[in-house]
Automatic annotation (TrEMBL):
Listed PANTHER family: 2-METHOXY-6-POLYPRENYL-1,4-BENZOQUINOL METHYLASE, MITOCHONDRIAL (PTHR43591:SF24), METHYLTRANSFERASE (PTHR43591)
Organism: Funneliformis mosseae
Listed name of the protein: 492_t:CDS:1
MF-aspect GO terms: methyltransferase activity
InterPro entries associated with the record: Methyltransf_25 (IPR041698), SAM-dependent_MTases_sf (IPR029063)
Length: 321
């Protein structure tokens, strides 16, 4: 790898950061502070990460790294569709909208809509074929059935409970056109070549979130099951990439370790609810990352995609790896 991932910036980050203009009254109503970090303060929202510039920067670096690992922004066979006039694309949980903005520039003939419960997306500077809306998918999307040609949902593990996942996937399938495609990109809290300390810490973390927050951090096996329940996606495709954590993986591994550590430590305010103080949590994260690096550890990123068909009552979905 020739370029340090931490230095790879998309064309949208080479100028001044665009911030969202949100009325003060709205800010006070949907946000709260824990220490110096800002979080969503909505009773029906489970998102665990902060909503601030630090977290937006992490999401940007995360996006750059995964874009490099996959060498593309999607896996579904939709390039011809995106290059045709008038295709409609929906990005669920778009966040600061790196994916939406880059895709809109690459495919100017398509229309892109990004939605998120937190308005961290740009509102002043964006391509003409982009629209952003502050919406909660769990309360229903403001679109008719069969509206979008391509719907993508990326890295929502820390936003949805298991029940939420089923609701969200059903809604995603609803707004996707017959003949259109859906795609999900997720990773689990699961490592390969982990040591004893990391395994114990990971299992404790997984169980704490499952019991106290209703968050399932081993979500990838469930996603195709929820898709299959809709009876409109007879074939579900799955592909994955392994990503090294630490110096053994060269520049990629070092950058992924840095970004992973950053993300884990950005959860520390929430982890207080699970009985950890901030210093203790930071120490656990550092020990796990060191052990994974020493053991040639890695994790896997998953993509699932499928084409929507008419309702097929008696046909079981199957997965192609």
């Amino acid at each position: 790898m020739e370029v340090a991932m931490g230095k790879r910036l998309s064309k949208f980050d080479q100028g001044k950061r665009t911030t969202t203009a949100v009325p003060q009254r709205e800010i006070q109503s949907i946000y709260c502070y824990k220490g110096d970090r800002k979080f969503l303060n909505l009773s029906n929202v489970n998102y665990m990460y902060p909503i601030d510039d630090n977290e937006s920067d992490r999401i940007q670096e995360n996006y750059n790294l995964y874009r490099y690992v996959w060498n593309d922004n999607f896996s579904a066979p939709v390039k011809d569709l995106l290059n045709s006039n008038g295709s409609q694309v929906l990005d669920i949980g778009c966040g600061p909208a790196m994916w939406t903005l880059e895709m809109a520039t690459e495919y100017p003939k398509s229309k892109f809509v990004g939605i998120d419960i937190a308005p961290t997306f740009p509102v002043r500077v964006k391509p003409n074929n982009v629209e952003f809306l502050q919406e909660n998918i769990l309360t229903g999307l403001p679109y008719a059935d069969n509206t979008f040609d391509f719907v993508i949902c990326r890295f929502m593990m820390f936003a949805f409970t298991t029940k939420d996942w089923e609701v969200a996937i059903k809604e995603i399938c609803r707004v996707c056109k017959v003949g259109g495609y859906i795609e999900f990109m997720e990773k689990d809290i699961l490592f390969w070549n982990e040591g004893n300390f990391t395994r114990k810490a990971r299992l404790c973390f997984v169980e704490e979130l499952r019991t106290k927050k209703k968050i399932e951090t081993l979500i990838s096996p469930k996603i195709p099951r929820f898709i299959a329940k809709t009876k409109q996606f007879p074939v579900i495709y799955h592909t994955e990439r392994s990503v090294p954590l630490g110096k053994w993986g060269g520049v990629l591994g070092e950058n992924y370790k840095f970004i992973y550590t950053w993300g884990a430590k950005n959860l520390k305010s929430i982890m207080k609810d699970c009985g950890y103080n901030e210093r203790e949590w930071d120490s656990i994260v550092d020990k796990c990352m060191k052990e994974l690096s020493d053991n040639d550890g890695y994790d896997k990123i998953h993509r699932f995609w499928a084409k929507k068909e008419e309702i097929l009552q008696d046909v079981e979905s199957y997965i192609i790896e």
